[in-house]
Amino acid sequence: MIEQIAAEESMSQTHPGSVYLCLHGHFYQPPREDPFTHILPIESDAAPFKNFNEKITAECYRPNAEAGNFAAISFDLGPTLAAWLEQTHPDVYRLILDSDRQHYQRYGVGNAMAQAYNHTILPLANARDKRTQILWGLQDFAHRFGRPAHGMWLAETAIDLESLDIMADQGITYTILAPWQVATPIDPTEPYLVRLPSGRTMTVFFYNAPLSGGVSFDGNLTSNADVFASTHLPAQVVQEKQRAGEAQMLLIATDGELYGHHKPWRDKFLSYLIQHGAPEHGFEICTPERFMLMHPAQKEVQLKVPSAWSCGHGVARWSTGCSCTEGDSRWKEPLREALNRLEERADRVFELRAGEALHDPWGARDAYLSLRNGWISEEHFWKQYGRQQPSAEDMHHTRLLLEAQYYIQCSFTSCGFFFEDLDRIEPRNCIAFARRAISLIWEATGIDLQQEFVSDLRQTKSWRSGVTGAYLYRQLPVVSAWKLPALQ
């Protein structure tokens, strides 16, 4: 009833010819904890803070939450960031979740979007991994926000039709993309329908490129919210639609950390723009799902697939390498191939060994996040997925293999391939997650996947320092001898 009343109120607030402004923030931090100790190391570059999570919380997450900005904007909160905030800054975490509830109570729709779990570039994942990433993201969202997600943000807005189809099958109705990800002409002030292979459809919003790019990269553009609202926003309004009395929405999509971390004090710019600048110059603050409720998509478009917002070469930035990053990016392909081959070997072990205790190993993996985080009980999990009367030893070994699958997924985090060189913290973290998976498989089965993985890593090489992936693997922190096979 509350949802119906709020939705009717939202519809009653529709004005012909209205110009809406939507600000979307993509909030995300990759997991950087040591996968063996679960401790986030000291990050000296974040001084005087212990690590970048603390620094960004102080500069961005906390001030935006306390100012109420999350209640007005559209946002997605990465699951790994949400888990960290819940543990270390529960007051900030609760304020962010409450923002979605406030929006839901007022308009009948939330303003938070889900996120595929590990920030994986889904077009480069196999179908099984796409499904797991999407399901884990939806499970995480539902647990935290107390409602099913209707929108989903994809890492780097990287898309392919198979991923969109899986999302649609799971109840996702919309996503946000860059305007250059479409193959047909569009008006980015309105949403569009994409017809999927299954016959389902997905609503797609395309962000305004000049505004989004300017807000992200031109500090002068966000120095004064009144000037921004009086000068830069009107320049993007479609005058023909305004004269015809047709509603339109300007969508600005950026990394959420822009507001206070990447650009100091921009949290205050955002607050003033929301509360004064935009409304005083004729722009009503809105969110995609609310706009979609008032003005459903009517036209169909075709997408360029695969594509992303941060690569002009499909998704080559995270696969073969391309000119989107400086230097020699050929290290990316052998790193991805090494991780892919490790996953193939790990999957065979999982299917065979976990299949002794589970009647549906892959369905069990899809549900594992809820077990891992304590959202469902061991009893419930085994009742649904276990074979009749598995032994305690089988259950223990299966749990280790499921945990190995978790870390295999972590190893494909997009950050490991985003930047210009192998010899950085992001690729090292992906390699560290892979090593943790190798360790868990070794502990559960005695099968050694380390030798072949390290051999594969010799093929990927830093163009700056000359070190190989195998060297980076050997430089990872020492762990107890029994946790890994001897390294030749």
Largest β-sheet summary: 6 strands, parallel
Query: Class of the largest domain in CATH?
Result: Alpha Beta
Write down how many β-strands occur, each being a DSSP E stretch of 2 or more residues: 9
pLDDT averaged residue by residue: 96
Please, how many helices? Answer: 19
Low-pLDDT ranges: 1-7
Class inferred from helices and paired strands: alpha/beta
- What's the CATH architecture of the largest domain? Alpha-Beta Barrel
- Would you give the CATH topology of the largest domain? 7-stranded beta/alpha barrel
Q: Could you state the order of secondary-structure elements as H and E?
A: HEHEHHEHEHEEEHHHEHEHHHHHHHHH
Strand fraction? 5-15%
Rg of Cα set = 23 Å
What is the approximate shape?
globular
Question: Which bin fits the share of residues in helices?
Answer: 40-55%
Distance between the termini: 65 Å
How many domains make up the coordinates? 2
GO molecular function, one term: catalytic activity
Keywords: Carbohydrate metabolism
Organism: Thermosporothrix sp. COM3
Family: Belongs to the glycosyl hydrolase 57 family.
